[in-house]
């Protein structure tokens, strides 16, 4: 009975442990977040389907194993059966895994096809990785921005002191110029690099795309909620790899158009 109570308590805790986290990752996060794009939702749902499938399989397998261990132990006089094979059992334990894997494969393939469909995009942004910054070109808009680690984060890392003493929640995750994007809009990214391999990764978008010199990769997002979403370069690219964060500011279409107009006006104004 104690084992049953322990199992029931563990099963009761599993939903809480597997609950979706906030959009951006945080300390002690136990599960992936649902994100703020259809792509991220699909990845989360597929992950949860796989997770709960594994949980059910684990309960059945370990339940049967522990039941056999304690019920048919030698001290109770159990005698092991002697047989070479069982055709019916072999068919069952072959067919069931095939069905499970098929059930996991179909949504995965469907999601992969969906991920690479960049058609009907309303906006295209070229993302170029450099050591150690990102450049964003709004194609057709004559607007480009360069995004580097913020001065505040850079000052902290150069200070030689323990970064925890500064109590900066966005240390190494803040930039001087975030990329601004409209919500509820399909946005296409063309991703490349100028020097070495980088990787543009924003967890809340369910998106990680390699930036490779001489190669242009495509990706897309449709952000559902306004907010600030943070990411990082996810490919080791040199000594300052950890200091090229990504910050995306998602705003309404009206705010985006106003920001775009400001950028164009600033570019048209002669310096000095």
Automatic annotation (TrEMBL):
The species this protein was found in: Solilutibacter silvestris
EC number(s) given by UniProt: 7.1.1.9
The Cytochrome oxidase subunit II copper A binding domain, residue ranges: 120-262
Protein family according to the UniProt entry: Belongs to the cytochrome c oxidase subunit 2 family.
Function: Subunits I and II form the functional core of the enzyme complex. Electrons originating in cytochrome c are transferred via heme a and Cu(A) to the binuclear center formed by heme a3 and Cu(B).
Membrane topology: Multi-pass membrane protein
Molecular function as annotated in GO: copper ion binding; cytochrome-c oxidase activity; oxidoreductase activity
Signal peptide segment: 1-20
Enzyme class: translocase
InterPro entries reported for this sequence: CcO_II (IPR045187), CcO_II-like_C (IPR002429), Copper_CuA (IPR001505), Cupredoxin (IPR008972), Cyt_c_oxidase_su2 (IPR014222), Cyt_c_oxidase_su2_TM_dom (IPR011759), Cyt_c_oxidase_su2_TM_sf (IPR036257)
Catalytic reaction(s) noted: 4 Fe(II)-[cytochrome c] + O2 + 8 H(+)(in) = 4 Fe(III)-[cytochrome c] + 2 H2O + 4 H(+)(out)
Subcellular localization: Cell membrane; Membrane
Cofactor needs: Cu cation
Bilayer-crossing regions: 46-70, 91-109
Name recorded for this polypeptide: Cytochrome c oxidase subunit 2
Annotated Cytochrome oxidase subunit II transmembrane region profile domain residues: 24-119
Listed GO biological process terms: ATP synthesis coupled electron transport
Co-factor: note: Binds a copper A center.
UniProt entry keywords in alphabetical sequence: Copper, Electron transport, Membrane, Metal-binding, Respiratory chain, Signal, Translocase, Transmembrane, Transmembrane helix, Transport
């Amino acid at each position: 009975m104690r084992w049953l109570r322990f199992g029931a308590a563990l099963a009761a805790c599993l939903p809480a442990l597997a609950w979706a986290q906030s959009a951006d990752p945080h300390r002690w996060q136990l599960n992936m977040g649902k994100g703020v794009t259809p792509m991220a939702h699909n990845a989360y749902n597929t992950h949860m389907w796989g997770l709960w499938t594994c949980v059910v399989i684990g309960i059945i397998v370990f339940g049967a194993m522990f039941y056999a261990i304690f019920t048919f132990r030698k001290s109770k006089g159990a005698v092991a059966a002697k047989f070479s094979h069982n055709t019916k059992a072999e068919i069952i334990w072959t067919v069931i895994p095939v069905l499970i894997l098929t059930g996991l494969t179909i949504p995965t393939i469907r999601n992969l096809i969906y991920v690479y469909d960049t058609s009907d995009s309303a906006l295209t942004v070229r993302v170029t990785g450099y050591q150690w910054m990102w450049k964003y070109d709004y194609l057709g808009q004559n607007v480009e921005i360069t995004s580097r680690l913020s001065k505040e984060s850079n000052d902290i890392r150069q200070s030689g002191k323990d970064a925890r003493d500064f109590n900066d929640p966005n240390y190494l995750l803040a930039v001087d110029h975030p990329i601004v994007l409209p919500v509820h809009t399909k946005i296409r990214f063309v991703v490349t690099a100028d020097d070495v391999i980088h990787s543009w990764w924003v967890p809340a978008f369910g998106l990680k795309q390699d930036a490779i010199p001489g190669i242009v990769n495509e990706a897309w997002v449709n952000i559902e909620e306004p907010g600030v979403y943070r990411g990082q370069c996810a490919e080791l690219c040199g000594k300052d790899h950890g200091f090229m964060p990504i910050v995306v500011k998602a705003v309404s279409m009206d705010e985006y158009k106003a920001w775009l107009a400001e950028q164009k006006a600033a570019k048209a104004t002669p310096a000095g």
